[in-house]
Amino acid sequence: MLKKVAVLFASSLLAAFLLCACGEEKPALLTSTDYDLDAETAQTIRGVKIGDGPEAFLAAYRDYDILSSINGGEYLTLSVEDIPFDTSLTTILPSFFVDGTALEIESFCEENGIEKEQLLSFLTDENYLNTHTVVYRYLVFTWEDGVITDILSEAMDYNRDGSFYEAN
Smallest Cα–Cα separation from 95: which of 48, 31, 166? Predict the structure, then answer.
């Protein structure tokens, strides 16, 4: 049951990520190791940890796609100036990795002749998964009153977890 909830959560994040990224300047890509957390300190590889504020977070991640959910609402892409860090907030940094390499969505869609809305279907198609490894990784930061209260690093390997994915 927990895996199904995680898959639905990841699918919702992906939809928000795809829809909000339209027409924006291309952000830099995170690497797979950027999603690692130190097991003892729960600190990211870029030095962001629980108790840090917006300055540390933005110093590490301002150039990347950041999805924000205010008070448990829908995930949106906001400019870094518009993220209300002093509220109850969740920020997420998502990336797809195909065969271990971060995916630049616009060029991938162009190269494969698909629209952004078709990306998830394309990446999770059984034929594609037979020849490629597809992993969706994301860092989740929970905020209260301008301070990070929790950090999670999560991933969904579509080659292993794909049976739980259900397209809309």
Answer: 31
